[in-house]
Design a protein that fits this description.
The chain is an alpha+beta fold. It has two domains: 124 residues, GAF domain (Beta-Lactamase, 2-Layer Sandwich); 189 residues, 2-Layer Sandwich (Heat Shock Protein 90), CATH 3.30.565.10. Helices cover 49% and strands 23% of the residues. The chain has ten helices and twelve strands. 38% of the residues are buried. The model has no long low-confidence stretch (mean pLDDT 83).
Amino acid sequence: MRQVHALGVDLQDGLHGRGVPAAARRLRQLLGADCAILADLDGPVASHGPSPSSDEVESLLAQVFEYGASARTRLPDGGAVCAVPLNVADEIAGALVASGRPAEADVEAAASLVSDCLDHAALRRTRDRIAAADLRTLRAQISPHFVHNALAVIAALVRTDPDRARQLLSDFADYLRYGFAERGDYATVADELEATQTYLELQRARFQDRLDITVRMAPEVLPVAIPFLVVQPIVENAIRHGLERKEGAGHISVSGFGEGPLCVIEIEDDGIGMHPDLARSLLAGTGPESRSVGLANVDQRLRTVYGPEYGLVIETALGEGTKVTVRVPRFTRGVVAQ
């Protein structure tokens, strides 16, 4: 099992990753072969051990790629060279070639294992590309409504309270710097919390301090890596569509804590709430466009990174406020803040 896991690590970047030579060496050891070769559709990409003649290898690969089945040839010393196709997403992506005396069934089992590793690697890369594209979409949709209002508040304070205007302008610059930072796809909960607090301070100024804010975050979840820009869009949705339309003061709380192997983040407001059917349509991306984009984007990115069971959970009712819960694993392979 340890060798299988190590092979998956070797092949995590596909047939052209840095770990492919190590994978060839590991396959040779697993099969007890004289030589193990990994090939893509253009030919061998890595090998370990004394290789058969290039003509023999090319001939076998041509047969495998043409017919989509294993091919085998005998060697003068009584051994053989066996080539087995590697299938990724139900298509031939390459072949495993082994020479010496391993049984053909063993080579086929090893090729099946390699195919599974490559399939998982391809799925992971696809998920990463989807998450990155969704993140670019979210960055492009940073609310012009908020930008306009924040600048208007700062401009109004320049004469009456220049010190606060200066601080808010610094907060606004920090907010934009974080939102458009050239960084990886993940941030720590601490980073997300800092950006969210900056956003809330700008909103508090706009609400003329009628916005009450509570932030509680357990220390054990602060270093947890989560997808970039997860918390702030939920908070923005709560203020724009829950508290802006409420008469009088409003309250929003952001809390985080550990729950066994999970990191739980809750954003709750006492705004006007919404009908549960509307909440479902927002997560599905079919609700009113002005409201659904942020929540649907965050929900989709969470499901892409962690799996379908890790999307947002919304609890709400008309006139009862809204609570949005994020539950994600505290440790997930490949999810690392940069």
